[in-house]
Amino acid sequence: MNASIAPVVPPRIERPLERLAEVLVDYSTRVRRDDVVVLAAPALAGPLVREVYEAILRAGAHPLPRLGLDGLGEALLGRGSEEQLAWVNPVRKWELERADVYMSILADWNTKSLSAIEPERQAIVARAQDEMRARFLERAAAGEVRWVLTAFPTHAAAQDAEMSLEEYGDFVYRAALLDHERPADRWRELGERLKRVADFLSARKELRIVADGTDLRLRTEGRTWVPSDGHENFPDGEVFTGPIETSLEGTIAFTYPAVFQRREVEDVRLRFEGGEVVEASARRGQDFLEEMIGMDDGARRAGEFAFGLNEGISIFTRNTLFDEKIGGTAHLALGQSYPETGGKNRSALHWDMICDLRAGSEVYADGELVYRDGSFLESALG
After folding, report:
1. Given 49, 235, 347, 372, which is the most exposed site by the fewest CB atoms within 10 A?
2. Mind listing the domains of the chain with CATH numbers?
3. Are 49 and 41 in contact (CB under 8 A)?
4. What span, in angstroms and rounded, lies between the C-alpha atoms of 325 and 236?
């Protein structure tokens, strides 16, 4: 009789929510005494909210929790008048100007809850929030507010990722490097590797990305490449910039469904001329795609281009927080630029779309092959 082979199960991470809260407060946002800390989350994320709240108190800061109930956004989008959709809560404006730290936690009961909402209604809300979004990015770029976005594992997110809740939770915590004794030190180590890539790209003027269905050129001369090491997204693991707005030429085909505002658009293909999308197609979700990129003048231009470099994230989960960091991918965002990159595009839209480069890809920098099949060439990085 053949002996059965026991499955290899990684050890469970002890106290994951407590460890996550500590990293978010002490490392990601560096909360200090007397800071005003906005803590925005759905009520479903209550277990993590409690841990973060206590960590903020231990830091001597002032937590300002803002908990949402499931279904409120769906009710507004489904039954609100256009005036109500366009209304901006003045309390949010106060928070925007007074907060030293802004922490946001994703936790969905139903990731498909907005599937029946008319795209133009979602566009009204996005345009109404544009001024506040731009002001937030301005304060962040100036170092006036520190922020982080993270996720709490839920059944809905696990189902999107085709995992059990236990499997998904383990995925989330390991992607955040919480399986290491000192997670912050591991993030600092990853940050050094990301900085090496960012420094290399900062010295280049033009990129050409070649893959299945993709041949895209863009210029980044004079722009800043930012190494993302867990201080704004958590988990993190990318280097990004704002390409010169008029420079994109060619086509790009996105491997995974493009997810935005709880809507999925499949097989997105874009063609650029003079930096502007002149053709946009999708196998499913064409109407939503067209409505979003027609939102305003900046929605047809790229506000971000990035490489995903977190090797701890290897699968697509339909959560952009994780998916855009998949090691061996690149992503392009239509719409708003991040000011710290030097990008100048302005839009109510910021939609990240992901291209898997782990097989059959090449990236050229100023005509030199520097990246192949999901990895930068060590010979190129020097």
Report:
1. 372
2. 16-175 (3.40.1830.10), 183-381 (no CATH)
3. yes
4. 6
Asked if 153 and 161 count as a contact pair (C-beta separation under 8 A), the reply is no
Per-residue pLDDT of the chain (382 residues; tens, 9 = 90+): 454 554 555 677 889 999 999 999 999 999 999 999 999 999 999 999 999 999 999 999 999 999 999 899 999 999 999 999 999 999 999 999 999 999 999 999 999 888 889 999 999 999 999 999 999 999 999 999 999 999 999 999 999 999 999 999 999 999 999 999 899 999 999 999 999 999 999 999 999 999 999 999 999 999 999 999 999 999 999 999 999 999 999 999 999 999 998 899 999 999 999 999 999 999 999 999 999 999 999 999 999 999 999 999 999 999 999 999 999 999 999 999 999 999 999 999 999 999 999 999 999 999 999 999 999 999 888 7
Name the strand (E) or helix (H) holding 216: strand 214-219
Task: Give pTM, 2 decimals.
Answer: 0.91
What's the CA gap between 362 and 357, in Å, rounded?
8
Burial class (CB in 10 A: 0-12, 13-18, 19+), 344: middle
